Amino acid sequence: MRQQSSLRSWMSPSSHLLSLVLCLVFVVLLAAACVPAPAATPGGDSAPAAPAATNTAPVAPTENAPAPTLAAGSAVTATTSGPSASAPKVSSLPSGVDADGNFYRGDPKATVKMVEYSDFQCPYCSSFARDTGPQVDAAYVATGKVLLVFRNFPLDIHPNAMPAAKAALCAGQQKPALFWAMHDWLFTNQNTWSSAQDAAAEFRKQAVAAGVDGTQYDKCVAAAETASHIQKDIADGAKQGVQGTPAFFVNDWFVNGAVPFQQFQLTIEKAVAGQHPAPTPTPLPAGANFYDPDPNRAGLTYDGSPSLGDGKAPLLLIAFEDLKCKDCGQFFKDVLPALRDKYVKDGQLRILFFYYPNEGPKAAVAAACASRQGKFWEFADALYAHQADWKDGDNAAMAKYAKDLGLDDGKFSQCLSDPSAQAQIDNALTFGQDQIGVPQVPAFLLIDLKQSKSQAAMVGPQQLPAFTDKLDQALSAAAQATAAPAAGATPAPTPPAAPAPTATK
């Protein structure tokens, strides 16, 4: 969770990065989620995005869609399958109530605690409960490795979510197993009650059928303490940065949305092994964004990404790259020199290299070490030019390239084992995966910093014309926006004899 918090701190858009970069989610995440209008938050910052963030603009809670897996140019398809045949039934798992009154299942002595924030009317929560949840139960909860704790986070966009939360909570007040029985029924039958006019009556009928005492249930549903308990869940989730459902905390690791079982598996295994997210970097200065040039480190941004060009350039091109990726090498060889000559040198464009290493994580660390000595671009050129000659993790090869560039051998070698260099790469990769949803490398995001909006997102290898077309369009749009009079302003009078101005290049 510290790792995610740090990334959100870097993203704290003094305030436009979140709206800019999240539109990258490669324009796919929103296609698979219900997104209500932003909620106004009077006075002060809003609840941060998960995990905790600072200075972010108010954002209403949303349903977290499953993270899409895309190939370039492919469409987003949400699929849901039934529970694994080998998964244990909820009723067969040990269950109970923790000291805070939250229902759990599994062994309370498990070394990993997985806290789920969920909404019974959220389709993606239902998808997790019916598909991925049973797989987690079978592999980790039933084996005693994970304690699963459920907390309510009903969204305002779901009118029956709060009554459903009360129904499950009040059933569980009589017996913990009854909470999980209602939990299972609510998600399994979500389509039948989500639009019901009197869903509460249906919930009561089911609770009684499951063995709940109707009189005690009615008192519980009407009690102020019940609503307060749910509101506390919501408040606690908001403090941790939850903005949508489902959201999970696996010890101090954060998992956002109804992601595939494999992603839970990777995260849970890290927690089982006692691993923790990378340490939190130094917070940004007030008003700064992670992609802004760091005045104390020439050629680097605040998050340590290599930056090429004038820090005041109106356009920013973020290139998500992997030094072992062949197509990424094509960008460096065929596209970057032309962009540098045409747009970077005259101050129109700044290019940011964002580490996104799936194939070459150790090479990324080496490149970060080269960047600390002011030689990133030369080092990256060397790695791409000799891509077939080195293997990831070959420090001797990395040291040779560094020596050829005149880098300090001792400092470079020491940096290769420096935890902060590895943490920088880990942070970048997690940011790209969890916060942006970069589907593959290379990928590119063009941002108009003057207008605070994204101009284009491109996935996969691109030829030079794809970039120049979008850059020229963005520069033309920026020029028109600059020339246009401010809203409500009266243009200065034009002398009658003066000819109409003509556009010049």
Give your account of this protein's structure:
By secondary structure, the protein is of the alpha+beta class. It folds into two domains: 1-39 and 46-69 and 84-283, Glutaredoxin (3-Layer(aba) Sandwich), CATH 3.40.30.10; 307-480, Glutaredoxin (3-Layer(aba) Sandwich). 42% of the residues lie in helices and 12% in strands. 47% of the residues are buried. The chain has 17 helices and 13 strands. The two termini are 50 Å apart.
Looking at this protein, list some descriptive labels.
6-stranded mixed sheet; Glutaredoxin; 5-stranded mixed sheet; elongated; 505 residues; alpha+beta; disordered C terminus
Question: Summed up, what is this model?
Answer:
By secondary structure, this protein is an alpha+beta fold.
Helices and strands in order:
Layout: H1 2-11, H2 17-21, E1 62-63, E2 95-97, E3 103-105, E4 112-118, H3 123-141, E5 146-152, H4 161-174, H5 176-188, H6 190-193, H7 199-209, H8 214-222, H9 224-240, E6 244-245, E7 247-250, E8 253-256, H10 261-272, E9 307-308, E10 315-321, H11 326-344, E11 349-355, H12 361-371, H13 376-385, H14 395-404, H15 409-416, H16 419-436, E12 443-448, E13 453-459, H17 464-483
Parallel strand pairs: 1-6, 4-5, 10-11
Antiparallel strand pairs: 2-3, 3-5, 4-7, 7-8, 9-11, 10-12, 12-13
Helix pairs in contact: 1-16, 3-10, 4-5, 4-7, 4-8, 11-13, 12-13, 12-15, 12-16, 14-15
